[in-house]
Design brief:
About 65% of the residues lie in helices and about 0% in strands. The chain is mainly alpha-helical and about 325 residues long.
């Protein structure tokens, strides 16, 4: 079959139904929609059944994997949404990273308590593990602000790229089929900023993991990072398979590759463990660092009160 570079029109469920048939498409839609709906209800159920008060940031992080699952399956409705879905996935992931950092700051009692006395910056994290033997710099408030900047910057840039791609689609630019197409250029320009943001995020996690014991910081932070890496890596793998013509095109739709339909299914399967773990972790009973300190002070005051009472009783006798 001869393949064209672009689709001359939009591709929807009706076109996919004519190409794949009712016996393939309808059961697939039923299974995928059921899984996504169950994930959403699972996250909402954990949000509502939590015994402690859930902040707005925590509510977003609980729903984050389910939102990713909803966005990821949209190409099954219209395969030409693949590029836009990838951009929205990036935006959701970096927003979740920023929310995790803001949540960490609130757990520790604000920006004044972020930097511990005589602490060092663990900058020897992947991909800069080669600096493990180097002397670690002292962590300062200025350095902490620098760790926040790349994440804040990449959130804004992802939103701008989303607006640019929406404007390109509105003005008639077709979805890209080759890496050199115009709609791909803004996404390529984001790569250096994404790498720097991921690095600072990993440094941030390494610095605070020990101070947030009891609140599962390693699990919460690394699952967000894993979600970003899984979505980017699977998208890249399927792009390579399409460029090498490993996967063919649909009958009657010479601009829709089988990879465009398989990618959402694969990403949904990879997001399942994350969608099941994160809501449970955030609604589990765990101790806030500030709350733990307050309870320790209260306990010490109660113990001192008991000692004073015993001393008064002894003096009375």
């Amino acid at each position: 079959m001869e393949t064209t570079r672009y689709c001359n029109r939009s591709v929807g469920p009706k076109d996919l139904l004519n190409s794949l048939g009712v016996s393939v498409l309808v059961p697939g839609y039923v299974v995928v929609s059921s899984i996504v709906t169950l994930l959403l209800f699972y996250a909402l159920w954990h949000r509502l059944k939590s015994e402690r008060r859930i902040s707005k940031i925590e509510a977003y992080l609980i729903l984050f994997p389910s939102l990713m699952a909803v966005i990821s399956v949209l190409p099954l409705v219209s395969p030409l949404l693949g590029q836009m879905v990838s951009i929205v996935q990036d935006l959701l992931c970096v927003t979740a990273m920023f929310a995790y950092m803001k949540h960490t700051k609130s757990l520790l009692g604000g920006s004044k308590h972020l930097v511990a006395d005589k602490s060092s910056c663990p900058f020897a994290v992947p991909p800069l593990c080669c600096f493990a033997k180097c002397k670690k710099p002292k962590m300062t408030r200025t350095l902490m602000k620098i760790l926040f900047l790349p994440i804040q910057f990449i959130v804004v840039l992802n939103f701008v790229v989303l607006l640019v791609n929406c404007s390109l689609a509105y003005n008639g630019f077709p979805p890209p089929k080759e890496s050199s197409d115009i709609p791909n250029i803004p996404s390529y320009m984001l790569i250096p900023f994404q790498i720097s943001a991921l690095y600072t995020y990993k440094v941030f996690m390494s610095y605070f993991e020990a101070r947030l014991r009891g609140s599962f910081p390693r699990t919460r932070g690394r699952l967000i990072l894993a979600t970003f890496i899984l979505c980017k890596s699977t998208g890249g793998i399927f792009q390579v398979l399409e460029s090498k013509e490993v996967l063919g095109y649909l009958d009657g739709l010479d601009c829709v590759n089988f990879g465009q339909l398989l990618l959402p299914v694969v990403q949904l399967g990879l997001l399942l463990p994350v969608s099941l773990i994160i809501p449970k972790v955030y609604t589990k009973k765990w101790q806030h660092p500030i709350q733990q300190a307050i309870e320790d002070i209260d306990k010490a005051m109660i113990d001192n009160g008991k000692c004073d009472t015993k001393l008064e009783e002894g003096e009375g006798e």
